[in-house]
Amino acid sequence: MQPTSNERRSRRSDDVMTALHYQLAFARHEGGFDALVLADSAGCLVAGAGAWPTCEMLAACAPLFAEPPSPSVEFALRDQSNDVAIEKLTIDGSEVLLCARGGRSGNVPGLAMARAASGCRRILGVPA
């Protein structure tokens, strides 16, 4: 009989990009998001889960969602920003943005974002 394991992850990868995708896909499912992305501070997509065009658009807009927008940017994004959650992470001294669109009501999206942030830090080798 094999010892039982406390391992929760069912899909794993030693490849960083694949591991990030698995992490984001799980959190996307858990939070009920349309898309969940990790983007750099310039809006370039690092990794994502969801429809690819949606991920690219979400990553491109993430820096605009992360900072208090100017009135013209706020006007342009007014329909999208209500449905977006964003969390800033520091990875190896650089800021990256974890950004989700959609999601169920209640605390599930917040918990899914927190778990995704923790997973991204772990995968990228950053202490929590």
Topology summary:
Blueprint: H1 16-31, E1 33-40, E2 45-50, H2 52-66, H3 71-81, E3 84-91, E4 94-102, H4 108-123
Antiparallel strand pairs: 1-2, 1-4, 3-4
Helix pairs in contact: 1-4
Account of the protein in words:
The protein has 128 residues and is α+β, with helices and mostly antiparallel strands. It has a single domain (16-123), classed as Dynein light chain 2a, cytoplasmic (Beta-Lactamase, 2-Layer Sandwich). The chain has helices at residues 16-31, 52-66, 71-81, 108-123, and strands at 33-40, 45-50, 84-91, 94-102. Strands 2-1-4-3 form a four-stranded antiparallel beta sheet, with helices on both faces. A hairpin with a 4-residue loop joins strand 1 (33-40) and strand 2. Helix 1 (16-31) packs antiparallel against helix 4 (108-123). The model is unreliable at 3-7 (pLDDT under 50).
Short description:
The protein has 128 residues and is of the alpha+beta class.
Spatial sequence of strands, sheet with the most strands: 2-1-4-3
Number of domains: 1
Mean pLDDT, all residues? 82
Low-confidence stretches: 3-7
**Number of H/I helices:** 4
Specify Rg, calculated over alpha carbons. Answer: 15 Å
Report the end-to-end length measured between terminal Cα atoms: 35 Å
Task: Assign the structural class, choosing from mainly alpha, mainly beta, alpha/beta, alpha+beta, or little secondary structure.
Answer: alpha+beta
CATH class: Alpha Beta
What is the third-level CATH name, the topology? Beta-Lactamase
Identify the CATH homologous superfamily: Dynein light chain 2a, cytoplasmic
The shape, in one word, is globular
Give the biggest beta sheet.
4 strands, antiparallel
The CATH architecture comes to 2-Layer Sandwich
Strand content: 15-25%
Share of helix, binned:
40-55%
Number of strand elements: 4
SSE topology string = HEEHHEEH
